[in-house]
Amino acid sequence: MDSILIAMVAALLIPIYEACQDQDIWQKMLAFASIATKTSIIMLLISVLRDDWWIGVVAVIILSVGNAGLMLLAHLIKRLDRV
Fold first, then answer.
1. What b/e readout covers 20-43, taking b as 16+ CB neighbours within 10 angstroms?
2. Which of 4, 30, 54, 71 has the maximal Cβ count within 10 Å?
3. Membrane spanning segments where (predicted)?
């Protein structure tokens, strides 16, 4: 199980690198959304391994609400750049 967790953390580093490279706000926000999704999947795996369903509840909330908030923030930032 540790190798799966290490592979998931390694996959998490790819969007972090991409967020540091891009100048476009939409690309950065998509990278951050990918980070949030991958982090919540890691949290779900940990909650199953520890048999702690409270961690799983937080991960599901992040999965369902977190990405929508990031996309709204990106839209607001893009509109502020035009003004």
1. eeeeeeeebbbbbbbbbbbbbbbb
2. 30
3. 28-46, 53-77
Mean pLDDT lowest among 1-15, 42-56, 63-77: 63-77
Q: Chain-centre distance of CA 28, in angstroms?
A: 12
Domain, as residue range, for 32: 2-82
pLDDT at 22 over 70: no
For residue 55, the number of C-alpha atoms closer than 13 Å in the C-beta half-sphere is: 14
Contact at 8 Å (CB) between 15 and 34? Answer: yes
Which of 44, 47, 37 is closest to 12 using CA atoms?
Answer: 37
For residue 7, give the DSSP letter. Answer: H
Which residues have CB under 8 Å from 41's CB, separation 6+?
A: 8, 59, 63
CA-to-CA distance for 20 and 31, rounded, in angstroms?
9
CB 15 within 8 A of CB 32: yes
